[in-house]
Amino acid sequence: MFLKIKADSGDRSPWGDFWFAPVPWGGGAANINGDAALGLPAVYSCVRVLAESVSTLPFVLYKEKANGGKEKIRDHWLYRLFARRPNAYQNPMEFREMMQGHLALRGNAFARIYANSRGEVTDLIPIHPDRITIEMLSDTNWRYRVWSSDGTNAPVNRENIFHIKGLSPNGVIGYNPIQLARMAIGTGLAAQDYGMRFFENDARPGGWIEHPGNFKDDEQRRKWRAQWQEQQTGRNRHKTAVLEYGLKYHELAVSNDDAQFIETKKMSRAEIASMFRVPLHMIGDLERATFSNIEQQSLEFIRDSLRSWLVRWEEAIKFNFMDPEDDELHVKFDVKELMRGDMAARSAYYHNGILDGWLTRNEARIDDDRDPLDGLDEPLRPLNMVEESDAEDEEDEEDLLEGGDSAGKPTQSPQKEGGAQHLDSRLVALASAAAERVSRKEAEMVSRLMKAEDWPIAIAEAYAKHALFVSAALNVSLPTAQEYCDARRNEAQNSLTIELEVFTEIARCKLERLAIRGSI
Question: Can you tell me the distance from the alpha carbon of 29 to that of 464, in angstroms, rounded to the nearest whole number?
Fold first, then answer.
C-alpha cells in the first residue's frame, strides 16, 4: 500500500500538499484520486488509449548522416534501456505503459535511475506519483522525497530521478488533471452511482400505498410497512402482491428519461474525452462517427494529442540521459505504424513513390516487411521510368536517332553504306510499330497471368515463350530477346501492383530501343 498523504493544507507551492492530496468534490463527502477516477469507464478508456498508444510505438535511436539520412543505432545502452529491458521485472511496453498511465492520470511520471560504474544507466524503477513529494532547495533547484509503505521517507537528488511532467504551472511539477476536472469526474461518478442504484431496483422507482382508513398508531404502520417490504424484496421480488382491506398501490411515474440519466452520462463522457483530447470513437462512443470521418479523427488524434505526449517523452530522455553538447544522437518514437492506411491506400502510396522516383522498390519492400531483392535499390527516373544509370545511354540513343552524339556532333553508323548521317525515318517508324504491338501483347499476357494462384511460375513460363516472339517480331537475336524477357519477368514478379497503361508504355520504350539497336 502507498502512504496516505494528509489532506490539502492550502499550500500551493511546488512542494505543497495541494498537488498530492486526494481531490474533494461536491460537498467534500467523498474524495477523488486517480485510482477512484479510474472507476469511471470514460477515464479508464482515455488513460488506456494514451498508455497503450505510447507503449506500442518503436523506440528509435539514430544519428544523422552527412547526406541528411538517418543511421539507426542499436548497440547503445540508451537503446537497450528503452527498447529491450528498462529494468529486471518489466519489458519496454509494460514500463512505458505504466509511466504514461501515471503521466496521463496524475500529470507526472517518476522512475529511479540506477547506473553502472561507466555511467551507463542500467535500470529505471518506476515510482508511484503518490509516493513522491517535492523539497525545494532554492528557487530553481529541488530534490525529491520518496515515501515508503512503512511511512518512512528518503531524499533523492534530481539527477537520480527520471521525471516526465505534463502541463506545469512552475516547471517543477505537472498539473494533476483529476484535480482540475474534479467536478466533471464527480458528476460522472454520481451519475454512475445513480444508475447502479436505479437498476438494482429493477429500473423501477418506488411507489406508495393508499389505505382507505387509518392505522391505529405509528407502531402498527411501521410494522405493516416492514412486512410489505420483506414480502417484495429478496427472493420474493417479482411475486404477485395481494392487497386486502381496500389497499391500493400507486407507482411513481418518474422515468429514467425524466431524470436525464442518459444525457448526463453522454455529457460526462464527452467532457472527459475532451480533457484527455481523445476522440470519442476511440473510447467506444460511435454515435457521431461515420465511415468518412473516423479515419480522419484517428489521424487528428496522432497529430493533435499523441504527438505532444511523445515529444514530452523524447525531450525528457534527451534532458536526462544526453549531454547538452551531444548533437549527434537523436531519439524518437516512430508513429508510422499508426498512420498506415488500408491495403489499397498503401499500394497507391508505394506505387506513386516508386514511379515518381522518390522511393526505391527495395525501400517499399522493406517497409512492407519483405526482404530486399538484388537490382531494386536504384530509384526509377520519372517520365520514361528508366533507372538513372541508364539515363546516359538513353540520351546517347536519342542523339543517335537525331544524327548526333552527346556533344551534338554528327555521327556515322558503321552499318550504313556511305556513312549516312541520319537513321532512316522509315526504319524508326517500323521499329516503333513493332514495339507497340509486342508491348501490347506482353501487357495483356502479364495482366491475365497475375490473376492465377501460381502467377510467379506462370509468368516465368510465359516469358520464356515470349522471348521467341520478341526475337522474331523485332528481328533481334534470341539471347538479346531472352535478356530483355528475363529483366521484364523480374519486374513483374517483384511489383506490388501493375498498372496496365504504365506497364505497356515502359515495355514499348524498351522494345523500341531494342529494335533500333538491332537494326543499325
Answer: 85
Question: Is residue 387 a part of any domain in this protein?
Answer: no
In sequence order, the 6+-apart residues with CB closer than 8 A to the CB of 114 are 121, 122, 123, 124, 125
Taking the CA atoms of residue 213, residue 218, residue 222 and residue 228 in that order, the dihedral angle to the nearest 10 degrees is: 0
Contact (Cβ atoms closer than 8 angstroms) between residue 197 and residue 256:
no
Distances (CA, A) of 34 to 47, 129, 178, 182: 11, 10, 7, 10
214 contact partners, CB below 8 Å, separation of at least 6: none
Range of the domain at 56: 1-204+260-338
How far apart (Å, rounded) are the C-alpha atoms in residues 305 and 275?
A: 11
Are 66 and 153 in the same domain?
Answer: yes
Residue 279: burial class (beta carbons within 10 Å; 0-12, 13-18, 19+): buried
Distances from the Cα of 124 to the Cα of 1, 88, 96, 97, 322, angstroms: 21, 9, 11, 14, 16
Which of 250, 280, 312 is the last residue before a domain boundary? Answer: 250
pTM to 2 decimal places: 0.59
Contact 385, 359 (CB under 8 A): no
Neighbours of 490 (CB within 10 A): 17
Residues 235 and 290 in one domain: no
Residue 66 lies in a domain: yes
What are the backbone angles phi and psi of residue 405, rounded to the nearest 5°? -95, -175
Same domain, 445 and 362: no
Whether 255 maps to a domain, the answer reads no
Residues 304 and 158 in one domain: yes
Q: Residue holding cell 531524499?
A: 155
Same domain, 412 and 499: no
Residue in the structure block whose three cell numbers are 522509315: 426
Cell numbers for 240: 404477485
Rounded Cα gap, residues 31 and 20, in angstroms: 12
Are 403 and 446 members of one domain?
no
**314 and 431 share one domain:** no
**Consecutive 10-residue averages of pLDDT for the chain (520 residues):** 42 51 44 78 91 94 83 93 95 96 94 92 94 90 91 92 94 88 76 67 59 74 75 62 66 55 69 87 77 74 90 95 84 82 74 86 84 86 57 48 44 42 62 83 82 79 86 85 87 70 82 73
302 and 371 fall within a common domain: no
> Which residue, chain included where needed, has cell 501493375?
498
